[in-house]
Amino acid sequence: MAAEKWVLTVTAQTPTNIAVIKYWGKRDEDLILPINDSISVTLDPDHLCTTTSVAVSPDFTHDRMWLNGKEVSLSGGRYQNCLRELRSRASDIEDEKKGVKITKKDWEKLHVHVVSYNNFPTAAGLASSAAGLACLVFSLAKLMNVKEDHSRLSAIARQGSGSACRSLYGGFVKWIMGKEENGSDSIAVQLTDEKHWDDLVIIIAVVSSKQKETSSTSGMHDTVETSMLVEHRAKEVVPKRIIQMEEAIKNRDFPAFARLTCADSNQFHAVCLDTLPPIFYMNDTSHRIISYVEKWNRFEGTPQVLSSFSLKCEILILCRAVNKLVAVLLISHNRKAAAQLLQRLLFFFPPQSDTDLSSYVIGDKTILQDAGIQDMKDIEALSPPPEIKETNTPAQKYKGDVSYFICTRPGRGPVVLTDESLSLINPETGLPK
Ligand code: ADE
């Protein structure tokens, strides 16, 4: 190490992911080892991501982290597990410009600072810990020159937050549950990259919920302790579904993908209901969204519009449990169907009068343009969808029941950001900018 003052930093950006075959239930709570394989799609980090800068300096007296502008403790077991695993794999580094050399041995004594931002509203609870822990592990691995591939890093991220292991890759990702007691084979692997199926459009409706929160950790624990269904799911259902899902993804077979995703989501909710005390992640709004979309699919599926049947049935719904809010995830096979879906959603769930459109529909704004919606007046002017008109009952609207919509698509895995101006850490002080 050089004698003068120095700070070395690395900045990285990592995506979040959403499961299409769900992880629910652990066989080891400390190592975070699941009872079944799971498969996810990585969401485009241009819309939802975590950015994390990490720094090392001999002046740092202890490991510190600032999350979304506030200092938070790194003393939790999960953070400590990740830090310990990374430190034990750190290698020598040399920064010639700064005249700094750090040896493997030095890393045992050096402390790090971590500054992280999630670019999506934290209140949405949208798997922020997946993107966050993946970004923490990825950026520290770069800083510490950890010479391990993404799969090995995924096993470290897994110990911070289970689903974080799947955020180490873009596209479609499988988390293999593994068999070893020490978790060494419980890793994520990429099934296909994000370009493989790039016409998928993902719309997430973040639904306000007044329900009592159940954290995933305690919910999963209760399920494994009390549900009779979960063992059947993990041992009999998921292994077959994983094979079918891999095939559907490989062949870009949307009807099969939709069927498997919906079936898995429904079974996940059934397992939650089979838990003592029962866990209810869906609320009236999520049920309403599902039944509107079902109605639309059925309407378009009548013989008169046979030609558009395959197009419209390509809207799929799954509900995802998040911390305080409930999100309904809708994936459509193409942009035309996605724009029609968004029109319907905005018709039934218009924003509160004082909300502006840019904060009500976030992410890929081009879907809004495709839907012909430029401002609030366009939402007010939307006419009831034809499948509702048929029933001769006035369509009921639920203003304010959706907090906001996110439009996105499959995206890339983690990247290092080399542009210094994007760093969240002051390179002189090692503190947040
Ligand atoms: N938990 C939630 N978001 C996080 C982040 N960005 N970094 C670390 N932990 C997190």
In brief:
With 433 residues, this protein is of the alpha+beta class. The chain contains 13 helices and 19 strands. Adenine (ADE) binds next to strand 11 and helix 2.
Task: Provide the descriptors you would attach to this structure in a database record.
2 domains, Alpha-Beta Plaits, globular, single chain, Ribosomal Protein S5, domain 2, six-stranded mixed sheet, lipid biosynthesis, lipid metabolism, sterol biosynthesis, 433 residues, five-stranded mixed sheet, alpha+beta, binds adenine
List the helices and strands and how they pair.
Blueprint: E1 8-15, E2 17-21, E3 26-28, E4 33-34, E5 38-42, E6 49-57, E7 64-67, E8 70-72, H1 77-89, E9 93-95, E10 100-102, E11 111-118, H2 128-143, H3 150-158, E12 172-175, E13 188-192, E14 201-207, H4 216-226, H5 229-250, H6 254-273, H7 284-300, H8 306-312, E15 315-321, E16 326-332, H9 335-348, H10 357-360, E17 361-363, H11 366-370, H12 376-380, H13 386-389, E18 402-408, E19 415-416
Parallel strand pairs: 7-11, 17-18
Antiparallel strand pairs: 1-6, 1-19, 2-5, 3-4, 5-12, 6-11, 7-8, 9-10, 12-13, 14-16, 14-18, 15-16
Helix pairs in contact: 1-2, 2-3, 5-6
This protein binds adenine (ADE).
Adenine is lined by residues 50, 67, 116, 118, 128-129, 132-133, 136.
